[in-house]
Write a structure and sequence with these properties.
Blueprint (H helix, E strand, L loop, with lengths): L4 E5 L3 H12 L3 E6 L10 E4 L1 H9 L3 H5 L7 E5 L5 E6 H8 L4 E4 H9 L7 E3 L4 E4 L7 E5 L2 E5 L1 E4 L6 H6 L7 E13 L8 E4 L3 E7 L4 E9 L10 H9 L6 H7 L6 E7 L8 E2 L2 E3 L2 H4 L8 H17 L20 H30 L4 H15 L3 H5 L24
Parallel strand pairs: 1-2, 1-11, 2-7, 4-13, 11-18
Antiparallel strand pairs: 3-6, 4-5, 8-9, 9-10, 12-15, 12-16, 13-14, 14-15, 17-18
Helix pairs in contact: 1-5, 1-10, 2-10, 10-11
Length: about 425
């Protein structure tokens, strides 16, 4: 059997997941990554049950679940330590069918790449879309080594996606969301703490445990675009959060200034007309970059990848098409398969992008009366129990993939 050939541009979470999913569906996959290595840009990532179920489809869900570290209580606090709302890891797992798993991005990248054939990922290769192709001609990608043709191109080249601009040059592109983020991974403090997110006036802090005993901490604050600390970013975090409740000061004391990651937040509030054109499909931030306020950016990229592979692996479900001569794979019809991908993913991700923006706006309220009202409302809601607070994630974390996971393969990745 001849294999269909797919090229993935960008080795982000969505791109690597798509590569694994397509590989398991019988495609010959090559991942082209501009960076010299796969050292992830970022510290931690939270994988909610929706992403875990998507990973089940490619046999990796249980490997992620084994890394779950959150046990017992957690919740939302004020900077002085008062609890606004309490929740429970088991309540979240019961509602959405699984735990929230916090892990280092490097760990997730390792899990994904371990499920790919040797040599499938090529680093240090700058790739650009030359021709998106159509049902009658392949897509073409240019690299320093020449032109590559493929029956499918998956663009996972991030929020500044050059592929997206080539496909949709009139789209306005990413917009600054009005805030910046910091992320660190440090040893756990000596005194115990409950996992939490803390909302202040125009500022947010989160502290979450990792399975290896370290702590993933993240912060967000309203700020002008392009800002940087006059000294270093640890000093900036101390100015913004140094007097907040335990364990924030202890975590900041353990931070190496050189390891603080700071990034302005951009998103795509204007949805694209489609997530495909010709033989090219966009996934992850290239398609629907969102604010981090729901923690769904990486989760939606994983969903994209599995849904794309589902439609790309069953070309004849969309339309009656002839097969190639005997001994070759069934015909892949991008106009049908990728239109189905767009139809399934565009409405869902557009809604989540908008919900993340609304949640981010509430999180970053800075006027004192607005902050006081926000706190009062959260406390009021929390009195009805953790289920009411978790309800905001209904329709997000309870998503299920279009094909059922194969339990016999879930713990045994290809």
């Amino acid at each position: 059997m001849e294999q269909h050939r797919a090229v993935v541009v960008g080795a982000g979470i969505g791109g690597l997941t798509a590569a694994v999913a397509l590989h398991r569906s019988g495609w010959h996959v090559t991942v082209l990554e501009r960076a010299r290595d796969l050292a992830p840009v970022g510290a931690g990532i939270g994988l909610a049950p929706n992403a875990q179920r998507a990973l089940d489809v490619i046999g990796l869900g249980d490997r992620v679940r084994e890394l779950a570290a959150w046990q017992g209580d957690g919740g939302l606090r004020t900077p002085d330590g008062r609890w606004l709302a309490r929740t429970d890891a088991q309540a979240a797992a019961d509602r959405f069918g699984g735990p929230l798993v916090l892990l280092h991005r490097a760990t997730l990248v390792e899990i994904l790449t371990s499920a790919l054939p040797a040599g499938a990922v090529r680093t240090g290769v700058a790739a650009a879309l030359a021709d998106p192709g159509d049902d009658h001609r392949p897509a073409r990608i240019t690299t320093p080594d020449g032109t590559v043709e493929a029956e499918l191109v998956v663009a996972s080249d991030g929020i500044r996606s050059a592929t997206r601009h080539t496909l949709f040059p009139d789209h306005p592109g990413p917009r600054y969301a009005g805030c910046t983020t910091w992320r660190v991974v440090v040893p756990a403090p000596a005194r115990p703490f409950a996992p939490h997110e803390t909302w202040g006036a125009g500022r947010l802090w989160g502290t979450q445990p990792l399975k290896d005993g370290r702590i993933y901490a993240y912060a967000m604050a309203a700020a002008p675009a392009g800002g940087r600390a006059p000294d270093d970013e640890k000093a900036e975090l101390l100015r913004l959060f140094g007097d907040w409740h335990h364990p924030v000061p202890e975590i900041l004391a353990a931070v190496d200034p050189a390891q603080v990651l700071r990034h302005d937040v951009h998103h795509l509030p204007d949805p694209l007309p489609a997530f495909h054109r010709g033989r090219v499909a966009l996934v992850g931030d290239a398609a629907h970059a969102m604010m981090p306020s729901l923690g769904q950016g990486g989760n939606q990229a994983i969903e994209d990848a599995v849904v794309l592979a589902h439609h790309a692996s069953v070309p004849t479900r969309h339309t009656a098409v002839p097969t190639h001569p005997s001994g070759s794979a069934p015909a892949f019809v991008p106009s049908a398969a990728l239109a189905a991908y767009t139809a399934e993913r565009l409405p869902r991700t557009t809604a989540i992008v908008r919900k993340a923006a609304r949640t981010g706006a509430v999180t970053l309220l800075s006027a004192r009366p607005a902050v006081a009202l926000r706190s009062a409302l959260v406390r009021s809601v929390s009195r009805f129990g953790p289920g009411l607070a978790l309800r905001g994630f209904d329709g997000v974390c309870d998503w299920r993939p279009p094909v059922a996971a194969d339990p016999s393969r879930a713990a045994h990745p290809a």
